[in-house]
């Protein structure tokens, strides 16, 4: 009788508990916090959305921001933003729960999670990209002794490179979102996903 070969791992576990805890519980809770902030505290959310360092000092927009004044359109937009956050929160929380509970085949489960991760990853980068693109370029820059020129895109990135220019909301919108994307990449590449079991061969 030929010697038996050692068992070989057949697949990485698609959704170990620690990854489910991250994607299905912790991330939805963080998104829920954003939804509550935007819906219940719209004036404060609006005030924090763009850090002072990025605002041209003399704009009407900045004056309204400092006064805590929200137009009806802005208030509606923030409410709708909160609604979108709730949708993302429910999508992640319920989908990851349902996938972990009801899909037993690991290959099928991994395929479904990959599609979900793609959707969330695209959302990560559109969120980061739009946040950066729509930030003002900053206050005017002095040119010579008395001249001033309008800040440009390069000035915006100079401000982004300075930690003192950030506030908590900008940090969340860019760096926390980027951290979530990195976690998705880590799952995708199989980090911290052990084998499901072993296949015995004669």
Polypeptide structure, described:
By secondary structure, the chain is mostly helical. It has one domain. It is 64% helix and 5% strand. The protein is built from seven helices and four strands. It has a two-stranded antiparallel sheet. The longest helix has 31 residues, at 72-102.
Précis, in short:
With about 200 residues, the chain is mainly alpha-helical. The chain is about 65% helix and about 5% strand. This is DUF7704 domain-containing protein.
Name some characteristics of this structure.
202 residues, mainly alpha, DUF7704, transmembrane helix, 4 strands, transmembrane, 7 helices, two-stranded antiparallel ribbon
Number of helices: 7
Work out the number of β strands: 4
The main pleated sheet reads as: 2 strands, antiparallel
Shape: elongated
Q: Level of helix content?
A: 55-70%
SSE order, one letter for each helix or strand = EHHHHHEEHHE
Derived from helix and strand composition plus strand pairing, the structural class reads mainly alpha
Order of strands across the widest beta sheet?
Answer: 1-4
Distance between the termini: 10 Å
Residue stretches low in confidence (pLDDT < 50, at least 5 long) are: 198-202
Q: How much beta, percentage-wise?
A: under 5%
Domain DUF7704: 13-134
Transmembrane segments: 20-40, 77-99, 111-135, 166-187
Pfam families: DUF7704
Protein name: DUF7704 domain-containing protein
